[in-house]
């Protein structure tokens, strides 16, 4: 309900209008920028169209720069509104802008210059510094009930436990139930931005998946924000802040999705993956709901865990692990990598599927059309976000009493 007694409703309506304007701005600008990207040779081949008449078509890359730039403009307008309604939140908003802007810039340089893998890991942690420096929230965590007695015993028995308890100042009033992680908590938040940015980037490779997954996670975050705003608790303002960022993000992302959906006429590039990941890290950190945020990242966590052997090179990792297109059937099949093993003194070469969640889907359900595969993965994403929401609102009370 929008009236003068309900400034939150009015603010949300203004954010919505900005998001809609952002959507149409992005939609209009993409064709123009697409042309310039092609002209400058910032383009790639769609590997999922090999053997078809689209095989040699150059698809412009890094188009995430358009929604990213429009998103920043939307947030700058929000700054104006925020300055009057929530002046004490301006530092948060400015640091959010700086972190996202820096990540967008890094993503774009990655698309143009192709950074080595080790930089990709390191850069998001630098980009999150502005956020961490102005973070004012608590650095304490509530220990899950079943772990409390272990923690107390560990503190008394082992040297490592004693050391750990000395480092993390245990709240005197609630011994064992709240621990203050201090600097470690800041390190955790830095790692969160490294995770969010890279997790989206490595769960990619078929048309529409990068933007699709970000869109669904964004909707889940927004829904969570609405529930918290409605409950009108003390953290409601943080959730208004988060909703403001996410509404603009969803507006610009849906415009990009229209161009990136199968058959893609643009690629979103690392620019978009980093931009989206950093946006989620920002709302999770400044909105103080980073654990809930991670519940919406279940598919990305599964994909990351399953990818670990390849990411850390225990198993060879080719540049591209996206599924292989079979031009005869027109379907996607799991892509494979050669693995050398030694058994009984003989060196043998075996072929295994690249370790990604996308390939696992193809192994479980058989070859699929690229669009069907994308829809199936997005349905799975929605299911996981629903599950995350259920855990957050129904199961969390069992292990946390705060
Ligand atoms: C990450 C993945 C890689 C995956 C790639 C595709 C890891 C460690 N890296 O690498 O396995 O193959 O993303 O996004 O998991 N492309 C398509 N169709 C699409 C999207 C991309 O064919 O729908 C191809 C295009 O050739 C495009 C290229 O992927 O030019 C972009 O790859 P890039 O983002 O540079 O790969 P990485 O992020 O390094
Ligand atoms: Mg990428």
TrEMBL record:
CDD domains: GT_GPT_euk
A GO term for molecular function: glycosyltransferase activity
InterPro entries with a match to the protein in the record: Glycosyl_transferase_4, GPT
Keyword Transferase annotated: yes
Keywords: Endoplasmic reticulum, Glycosyltransferase, Magnesium, Membrane, Metal-binding, Signal, Transferase, Transmembrane, Transmembrane helix
Main location: endoplasmic reticulum
GO cellular component: endoplasmic reticulum membrane
Domain of life: Eukaryota
Pathway, per record: Protein modification; protein glycosylation
Chain ranges passing through the membrane: 12-30, 62-83, 90-109, 121-143, 185-206, 240-259, 271-289, 373-393
Reaction equations catalysed: a di-trans,poly-cis-dolichyl phosphate + UDP-N-acetyl-alpha-D-glucosamine = an N-acetyl-alpha-D-glucosaminyl-diphospho-di-trans,poly-cis-dolichol + UMP
Entry protein name: UDP-N-acetylglucosamine--dolichyl-phosphate N-acetylglucosaminephosphotransferase
Cofactor: Mg(2+)
Membrane topology: Multi-pass membrane protein
Pfam hit, one: Glycos_transf_4
EC number: 2.7.8.15
The UniProt record lists the keyword S-adenosyl-L-methionine: no
Function field: UDP-N-acetylglucosamine--dolichyl-phosphate N-acetylglucosaminephosphotransferase that operates in the biosynthetic pathway of dolichol-linked oligosaccharides, the glycan precursors employed in protein asparagine (N)-glycosylation. The assembly of dolichol-linked oligosaccharides begins on the cytosolic side of the endoplasmic reticulum membrane and finishes in its lumen. The sequential addition of sugars to dolichol pyrophosphate produces dolichol-linked oligosaccharides containing fourteen sugars, including two GlcNAcs, nine mannoses and three glucoses.
Protein family: Belongs to the glycosyltransferase 4 family.
Localization, UniProt: Endoplasmic reticulum membrane
Top-rank EC class of the record's enzyme: transferase
